Amino acid sequence: MSTWSTNLTFSPLALSSQDPLPALALSKLDDWGMVTLIGADSKAYLQGQLTCDLVSLEASKSTLAAHCDAKGKMRTVMRIFHIDNGYGYLQRQTVMATQIPELKKYAVFSKTDINQSTDVVLGLSGEQAQSAIDNYFTGSDDVRHNDIATAVKVDNLRWFIITPIEHAETVAQHFAANATLTDTALWNLYDIKAALPRVEAATELEFIPQAMNLQSVNGISFKKGCYTGQETVARAKYRGINKRAMYIVSGESTQCPQAGDALERSVGENWRKGGTVITGYQFNDQQALALVVLPNDLDDDAQFRFASQPDAIWEKHPLPYALDDDA
């Protein structure tokens, strides 16, 4: 394990459900990692594997995408971008050991080298994040590079920062001068509020992309050619067979909801399994938030609970985007 951060303390941030988020925070994202594809055939190969249209991805932009199996079930959700005359993508560490071998399976016929990077992944968040990035990286693109780091924009409040281990402390110290240092939980909270999909080992190969709203965050192209799982993804759009969506829910909890946890929903006077947790966040006042895949035809006032805490009733909240298939 790298010891690059021994001179910095990335601590859990104590937040109540009513507290404002830090104006600038630097999170150590050990549970994220990067994979690189370098070689002349990388674009063509990935185009046949991912849900996004990589051909139209500009060097100044990143995009979400899913890598699916032949049945259209997601192995991962990634954020992909141009780097080092090839591509890099960020995904959860828990799926690395299974997703990378599957991506490599047919790459032997293509000129592309696929490798898990040892680079450190950091997250910069808050209302001052944009200005902090502008002061450290030149240009105005959503993907920026300098001699020792790459920055990838997530939204108006967040950037990923990727840097080799030997430069990680230098980069972190620069932002630490004006930022709150914290662990990955704050990043999870932002992902929940933004309703951004992710796949963990506990949810790998469980859902098609539309069940996590990937079409609503520009992660699916319905105009590109074939890719692994494309038939199922297209059928879900054009035949309306998808019956699930990902929602934000909140309630009282004595523990943080974990990926794969089952959420029950009320059906008359009874309770039955309603959905699967994608990720969660717990505040220090016993309130919690979670992203959960649920049936997409539930009433707005539907109630939910975890079987382990049957007296704590959870509720569904509006999403920050429309659920549509117009990509």
Automatic annotation (TrEMBL):
tRNA-modifying protein YgfZ-like beta-barrel domain mapped to chain residues: 242-307
Matches recorded under Gene3D superfamilies: 2.40.30.160, 3.30.70.1630, Aminomethyltransferase beta-barrel domains
Location of the protein in the cell: Cytoplasm
UniProt: folate binding residues: W32, W187
Domain of life: Bacteria
Keywords, comma-separated and alphabetical: Cytoplasm, Folate-binding, tRNA processing
Record carries keyword Membrane: no
Listed SUPFAM superfamilies: Aminomethyltransferase beta-barrel domain (SSF101790), Folate-binding domain (SSF103025)
Family the UniProt entry places it in: Belongs to the tRNA-modifying YgfZ family.
Role: Folate-binding protein involved in regulating the level of ATP-DnaA and in the modification of some tRNAs. It is probably a key factor in regulatory networks that act via tRNA modification, such as initiation of chromosomal replication.
Listed PANTHER family: TRANSFERASE CAF17, MITOCHONDRIAL-RELATED
HAMAP family: tRNA_modifying_YgfZ
Listed name of the protein: tRNA-modifying protein YgfZ
Taxonomic placement: Bacteria, Pseudomonadati, Pseudomonadota, Gammaproteobacteria, Vibrionales
